[in-house]
Design brief:
The protein is of the alpha+beta class. It is built from 21 helices and 18 strands. The protein binds 6-diazenyl-5-OXO-L-norleucine (DON). Pathway: Sulfur metabolism; glutathione metabolism.
């Protein structure tokens, strides 16, 4: 039934072609040929923590480029923002290499160990076991971040890892004052941290949450980073660190082998590229669902002139496009090395034409008319940073340990806080994960497979301006980035794009999640009459954006005003 509906939509698209009533009418010529020969001559970095942004600038000042700065920012975040990302997790990077005018995507996503067993994540009654999928060693995938950093430094950086990792190592050795978000995360996860001795020793010194203003050091992680700086991949994926990781995981009930670690590789993949009204959007391919969903939504929306619509109708069309893209996410997407995905269909303008035809002009389509359901609230841990350097190199990286403080499991002697990314698999078919996302066989756990992500680091090249953009937010990453792109297309500067109020629909649950104040009363009334229901939700991500106005050749960087600790800076 689901599939039949989808093919019907596709067929209508084919019949109408691009000249149908709602077909794409794009007055602005394609921008895909834009050559970025221009250089900004100065740099912009926006990240979730001021120390990380400054680490990036420090490495630029030493002669590094945006890629070296990215290694510095990511590794510093591993020390100062461990609740969101770190070397025990993974990331996805969308990058533009100025010298060769090339766009690349680096997949440093975690993977399941060879001994993965779906039964470990089930209660005896067959319901999902949220404890094993979100806490402790079973919840952790094999980390991808160290391999990703080594890959970026080796292939695109100008400096040795010893230089780009230096600020993180120094911060870990000399110490820093944890910000209120980190202290709050430790407070929130105190009970879980106490379950694992190395976690308690690291995050609860003297058995309690550190006080605001305390200086905090991370010598074990400094040592692990030094081995990475000295030996590259083998400094983490074999030798001392690998042995300590395997020993710690297995003695606490996990099933990792040295071979799992030695076989991990960062992978370069072709990014998803979509053209929306003359803007070229370069974004994340599977194993993220983000780029496919953003492309599908923009393809649907490109058949409407949103700028001519009242707010309620514009929002209505955006929600309906989101609903349809998330339905496909649930069914089709997974690790491209394991699943064949109908990407040609999902990304085709004809398919989008068909989906557009199924949207009623003034009425919500109940998701139940399209397929089955469920849901939960997303959190806000994971991090995104954006960089443009003086030569016009660009990096968008979203990095994560998944939920707050990941698995809360620190591997003894390494300082490495492991991720809890296994929950991003569809561990039980059609039962929601912690972000309410459903999944099918395409995203079922398998040995060596990468779990589907929503991370959507993106670069948007318009006729006159370029943006590097992304955000954390679980499943809402996709819609936050989409809305950020639309705000940029509408002319927003970096602050306006980051501050833009947000809403989200993910097919199931069939409700529009809203940031308080996103719609005025008249818009809410009009949308209610169309059949929408709303749910207030907090928090809403942590967007970090850098924009390059190529007419004035000025950069503009902003960190989400919803949070106090980020820093967007141009220099
Ligand atoms: O890869 C993903 O989609 C998730 N692990 C991201 C988690 C996230 O954004 C958490 N909170 N904001």
């Amino acid at each position: 039934m689901k599939l039949a509906l989808r093919w019907q939509a596709l067929l209508i698209g084919f019949l109408l072609g691009t000249s149908g009533a709602f077909a794409a009418d794009n007055p602005i010529p394609s921008n895909h040929a834009v050559q970025l020969a221009q250089r900004p001559g100065h740099a912009g970095i926006a990240s979730a923590n001021a120390l990380a942004t400054e680490a990036g600038f420090e490495v630029l000042a030493k002669g590094g480029n945006a890629f070296d700065a990215a290694v510095a920012v990511a590794s510093t975040l591993s020390i100062v923002e461990p609740e969101s990302s770190g070397i025990g997790g993974g990331f996805m990077a969308t990058m533009h290499i100025a010298a060769s005018n090339r766009d690349v995507f680096v997949d440093a996503r975690e993977m399941a160990p060879a001994a993965v067993d779906a039964k470990d994540y089930l209660n005896p009654d067959g319901t999902p076991n949220r404890d094993t999928s979100l806490k402790g060693p079973l919840s952790a995938g094999i980390p991808g971040e160290p391999a990703g950093l080594v890959w970026i430094a080796k292939h695109y950086g100008k400096l040795p890892l010893s230089a780009s990792l230096a600020p993180a190592i120094r911060t870990a050795r000399d110490g820093f004052k944890p910000d209120s978000r980190l202290l709050g995360s430790i407070q929130e996860e105190q009970k879980n941290l106490m379950r694992w001795p190395a976690s308690a020793a690291k995050y609860l010194p003297d058995g309690k949450v550190p006080a605001a203003g305390d200086i905090w050091r991370d010598p074990d992680q400094a040592h692990t980073l030094e081995l990475l700086a000295q030996y590259g991949d083998s400094g983490f994926y074999s030798g001392e660190t690998a042995q300590k990781l395997v020993d710690a995981v297995n003695s606490a009930g996990g099933h990792w082998t040295l071979k799992d670690l030695a076989s991990y590789r960062a992978k370069e993949r072709t990014p998803i590229v979509v053209d929306y009204r003359g803007y070229k959007i370069i974004t994340a391919p599977p194993p993220s669902s983000g780029g496919v969903a953003i492309a599908q939504i923009l393809n649907i929306l490109s058949g409407f002139d949103l700028s001519q619509m009242d707010k309620a109708h514009r929002v209505h069309l955006e929600i309906e496009a989101m609903r349809r893209a998330f339905r496909d996410h649930n069914d089709y997407l997974g690790d491209p090395d394991f699943v064949k995905m109908p990407l040609d269909m999902l990304l085709s303008p004809y398919y989008a034409d068909g989906l557009r035809q199924s949207i009623l002009p003034d009425k919500a389509t109940p998701s139940s008319m399209l397929a089955p359901s469920s849901g939960q609230d997303p959190g806000m841990h994971t991090t995104h940073f954006s960089i443009i350097d003086a030569d016009g190199n660009m990096v968008a990286i979203t990095s994560t340990v998944n939920y707050v403080l990941g698995s809360t499991f620190v591997a003894q002697g390494t300082g490495v806080l492991l991720n809890d990314e296994m929950d991003d698999f569809a561990l039980v078919p059609n039962k929601p994960n912690v972000y309410g996302l459903l999944g099918s066989k395409a995203n079922a756990p398998e040995p060596g497979k990468r779990m589907l992500s929503s991370m959507s680091p993106s670069i948007v090249i318009g006729p006159d301006r370029t943006a590097v953009i992304g955000s954390p937010g679980g499943s809402t990453i996709i819609t936050q980035v989409l809305e950020g792109i639309l705000a940029f297309v509408d002319g927003g500067d970096a602050h306006q794009v980051a501050a833009h109020k947000r809403f989200h629909h993910q097919f199931m649950p069939d409700v529009v999640m809203v940031e308080p104040g996103v719609f005025d009363a008249a818009t809410t009334d009009a949308l209610t009459r169309m059949g929408y229901t709303f749910k207030d939700r907090e928090p809403w991500g942590f967007m970090n954006v850098v924009i390059w106005d190529r007419r004035s050749n000025k950069l503009d960087a902003a960190s989400d005003p919803r949070r106090a600790d980020g820093l967007g800076k141009v220099q």
